Amino acid sequence: MNGIYLKIYNAAKPYLNTRDNDIHTNVCYSFAVKLLKAEGGQEQVVFPAIILHDVGWSRIPQELHNKAFGPGKHKDKKLNRIHEVEGAKIAKKILRDINYDQSLIEKITDIVLGHDSRKDPLSLDDAIVKDSDKLWRFSDVGMRVSMKRFELDASSYIRYLESQIHKWFFTKYGRRIAEQELHFRRMSPLT
Description:
Helices cover 66% and strands 0% of the residues. With 191 residues, it is an all-alpha fold.
């Protein structure tokens, strides 16, 4: 991450100090780099959106976070939606404050506004952000954080992720990365 994207990240840092979002954001960013290279898309939309997509969690008390997402059927979708709405507001402010290209701000904030709740992506850029966000769960650090957060053992969490691959991913390369990451997790058991 460098240049303007590092500037955006530094402005977002105060909002990323919850839910391991600083680590999450960096892992998602690395997946976004790979997906952009393989699928195309506009880095000037994707990179700011992936950096800013979860800044809205800073507006929700930490003890409520696990009620909004993760494995299980009884999730509070309202909390998840609040983080998107608040995140879009924060993203818009950050982007305006750093004088980001005005013609791109709405595209970026629209992605942030529905990155979890919107079923179908608005664009290739949105699909890349959605896939990069989900790929976090398949990474080594993402799995470790999630297993601890949801009190799951490795084999249960791997089975859960495996069952979601064809539901979650919009890009061909995103699915391939998810499958590769699961393969790596199986070969190197998490403890």
